[in-house]
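During the second year of the project, the team shifted from modelling isolated chains to modelling whole assemblies. The rationale, set out in the original proposal, was that interfaces cannot be judged from single-chain predictions alone. As a representative example for this report, we include one of the complexes processed in the last quarter. Its constituent sequences, exactly as entered into the pipeline, are reproduced here:
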Amino acid sequence: MNSTLIWAIAGGLANVAVVLLIAPLCEGVLRKVTARLQSRQGPPLWQPYFDLLKLLGKEDIESGESPGVQRFVARLALAAVLTLACLVPMGFPAPMNGAGDVILLIYLLTLCGICTLLGGLAAGSTYSLLGIGREMMTMIALEPLFAIALLIGAVHAGSFRLDTVLNGSVYATAGIPWSGLILLVVMVLSFQAFVQKLPFDISEAETEIMEGPLVEYSGPKLALFKYAQMARLVVHSGLFIALFVPWGSSLPFPLGWLLFWAKVLVLVLLVTAVAATHARYRIDQAIRYFAGLLAAAFGALALAGYGY
Amino acid sequence: MIAREKLDQLKARWGAAIRRADIPSDRSLFVFVEASALKSICQYVFRELDARYVISIGADDRPFSGSFMVAHNFAFDRDHLLCSILTNLPADDPKVESISDVVPPANWAERELRDLVGIELTGHPYPKRLVLSDGWPDGVHPLRKDVPWNFVPDDYDDAREFKFDEPPEGCTVVPFGPFHPTLDEPAHFRLYVDGERVRGCEYRGFMAHRGIEKLAESVLSYNDIPIMAERICGICGCVHNVTYAQAVESAAALRAPPRAEYLRTIMLELERLHSHLLWVGLACHIVGFDTLFMQCFRIREPVMWVAEKITGNRKTYGLCVIGGVRRDLTGELKAELQQVLTRLEAEWQTVTGAVLKDRNIQQRTRGVGVADRSLVKEAALIGPVARAAGVDIDCRRDHPYAAYDRVAFDVITAGDGDVWSRVVVRAREVFESIKIIRQCLDKMESGPIQLDLKDELPVGRLGLSSVEAPRGECHHFVITGENNRPRRWRVRAPTYQNLQGVPVMIKDQQLADMTITLGSIDPCFSCTDRLETIDVSSGKIKVWSPEELLNLGRTKKTSI
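Output from the structure prediction step:
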């Protein structure tokens, strides 16, 4: 084994550990700030850790149509996000960039969404099926956005390599990076949907379809799904930062690292503020909204093709 | 003499069929008619005289007059008149023509009187069990006088299942309730869903029956009942409390002293305040806007506190007795109430400012769950639902009671009949309530708060009362009786009528709009479910059978 491989593996594992550690804290911040916006005291910052521990310690109830698949999907959901974490820079350059390229990243992003679908399908209740119907529509409209962002980066950088693309390459044009700027706006407007927060938590919509795909999950399986969701917020933030606001990440160790997590915190606060001030969209309204963004993103891709 | 005029109109058209009539005051009219003409007269009153349908009542009057009785109540809102069309049916064959095909909003009320009193309705368009629980045997009617209040039939069959209708072709069934995060009380909607669209539904409710009417007619006394009546509903308790007292007072031709009337008005409006604040909050919660939900509840809390200071309770004020109220308002409390109102007004300005300008909320509520003027007529919808459709009815102005004839206020209406209009109507009504309470505090004269009643109340008199609850008109019908209690007491809560309009409102809507549409009538299932003599917890629980649970609930007095 050469040392590069060892470092890559160690870096990947470090990323996984950091995401697992920090994701519940981000959720805690989100809850606390939401509570303050709502004139509430709010739970302590570390409450999500306790919640996860409590759920993990509960009896594993098998309800739903195919318990085997459900058990598998719950693990797959978290695993997919964590694998994604190995490929995304978290304050350091992307650790496993030799192990995959941008295409793998796009696959993994899609896999995260598919886990929700599979989970709902395996549970088989009417409400889960309604939820995955909505999730599927959202995915079709939403998943191409990140893919396009990565593709534009790849076009500008002339490479599919992770460390090249995930370093602000969307702006790597000779003149004004129109495609990158358009996409930045598109991603800001759709970020809320990627992390499944209001006003786009349509596929779960507690007050309409009772958590949709997750309605049959409880105990440890629910903990895994919840953990995956929390991790998703961190990993997607990391990806967003690497693609669109990479400035300062090449600073020496403590500075660059701290700057990265400060950016993540800002993103989390932004997500919280938007979620606390919006009502949930209906699926048809959301799809219309995504369609507009998708059109803009394709426009940007075309521009990128011409070098803008 | 508007009551006399209406009677003359009826007599001119149906002279032979009208046996006798009673005009206790210019505000109410009782017309006793031949059973054979009941349907045509009701049709005439509903269609040609354009009255609003209120409720139908069945009563077992055999011990007193040897017959069963059916009454259909109507309201002439612009003429300030409540009208009851009554008929007697022979004891051995209680059968009458159903009016539901010509007066559609009577559908539930007729099914209910068939279930509970056992009066056969010929020609009912949908004669399905409504109120009785699934296992209750056919042919046993709990509101009959020969059925004791604690009667449990031997052949009660827990395993018997309710037969739902077949869903239309191409639709899947989505069960909504009995337990759902947005239903605070049990009710079951079987939604027929085609993709994301709701094509129809069947309602099965009445799951939390407490037999309150039966208890009132057989166990309680006149002044116990107000305490029981306010427990019909967790939100508009005071409304039932006042409506009942007024119905008995109107039957016995009593009038509460002026100060009592002002106090009733103040408490009713306080109740409307906290109910509307709660509703706007819940509506925001249903569409996922929890920040406003929390703010509404924060603003609402001082109203609960001041109610507690006045009456000793946040809810269940225990306000009325027959002929007055039990609690007075001291000068100190008056000042505090003024302060609460001032703060509330300022804070509510902020909230309504935010809500009424929010595009996001409008996107979720405009054009959703529409009830237009014709549905308001055909389903006899009331309260904010009717006013949101531009139908200008409000019992506070149309059938003034308590001190409402001495205060000035506006009846808020809107035009579109959708959920958004209902939000607007309720949000603005809060300001009117504040206005009313302030006027009452200013105008309230000192004096007694109760009548000094020495004699027994007269027997066999009929009384009606309509009160504008936060959700719409609450209507009570009373026949006074022996042993210091009424012979018959019928409660019609606003949700009873408004719920019947929901299937039309949600038809062809998105499933996502179902909860906010249902929420927009501000449903109160406990109000609707107030009848029934047996309480059975059903449910598929593996460890406990329903019977065991029931026994456990009855015997276990400490924690489990």
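Chain B has two domains: 1-131, 212-528. Chain B touches chain A at residues 172-175, 180-182, 193, 195-196, 284-291, 293-295, 298, 358, 360-361, 363-364, 510-515 (CB under 8 Å).
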